[in-house]
Amino acid sequence: MESTTRKRGRPPLFDRDHALAAATRLFRAQGYEATSIAQLTAAMGLRAGSLYAAFGDKKTLFGEVVAVFECSPVGGFVHAALEDEPTALGAATRTLRDAAALFTSPDTGERSLTYESGSGAAIRDAEVAQMVQQLRQADVDAMSRRFVRARDEGELPADADPEMLAGFVATLLHGLAARAAEGASTAELLAVADLALASWPAGSAR
């Protein structure tokens, strides 16, 4: 007869990917500042000591969450648009349209970490704020490189400023995120994006 006595020893290993996904959902829904260790341990199914042992402190955990998130289709929506769309205007349009849908998603756990981190509240931790800013700057740099190529290929006029255009799109992203946090609808954000892109410079390439 098999013994039903629970064997002593080490507890079963936790599912790291599952725990990280739970932390990601929580950070995406509430932002870094509003998320507490107690909330994280409850969502991840870990005790505080186990969380610290597996992921380090809250800041380190957030860094890992963001690194994984940026490689996901949602987190990498800017880079996906730049790589998939055949024109710079198409990439800028898709970026803003995807952002409008993402920022107004009814499921706050499915929103952006880098453009909405903090759910509208400023990140007070300087290191975390710098981390998020660097990720946003990486998007700007990628857009600038794509727009340089568009200018070289004649899609943009020779006097177009790729860095300025990248900053233009980045500013729109920040504005759309801010308006979404204030309750703007997807339709409103799409209309704003279309209005802004009406001023996009045209080159000679067809």
UniProtKB/TrEMBL annotation:
Q: Origin, by domain of life?
A: Bacteria
The keyword Acyltransferase is annotated on this UniProt entry: no
Chaperone keyword on record: no
Q: What would you give as a GO molecular function for this chain, any one?
A: DNA binding
Q: Name one Pfam family in it.
A: TetR_N
Q: Which UniProt keywords apply?
A: DNA-binding, Transcription, Transcription regulation
Which residue intervals are the DNA-binding region?
36-55
Q: Show where the HTH tetR-type domain sits.
A: 13-73
Protein name in UniProt:
TetR/AcrR family transcriptional regulator
